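This section describes the prediction task in plain terms. A model, or a person checking by hand, is given the sequence of a single protein chain and must write out its three-dimensional structure as a string of tokens. No templates, partner chains or ligands are provided. The sample shown here is typical of the held-out split.
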Amino acid sequence: MLEINLNHLTNESKLTNKPRTQQRRRFMNLQQKLDAQKKGTETSAPKEALEVMHRATEDLAKSGIMDRIVKKGDKAPDFMLNDINGNPVNLKEKLSGGPVVLGFYRGRW
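The expected answer:
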């Protein structure tokens, strides 16, 4: 189905053939997307899996881990790491050129 959204006179007014739910998701902020994902998981995951996830979340909260997380506005210590090509990259040097975005990845490589 082809639909023209004329309800909003913003960038959302585009010619599209995506279902309305996909359109709405595209314009959600991050918290709305996370809430929608959580709701979908809560309704579709097996009960046993949900119990394990909820127990693990409670255990993490009780561990005090949230007291040790990096918070918005915290200053990162200076460090030097190698980039993908093996070249050293220093945070202090990068900051001298402007803002720096640090990404933290969890998992296996």
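For orientation: Confidence is low (pLDDT under 50) at residues 1-15.
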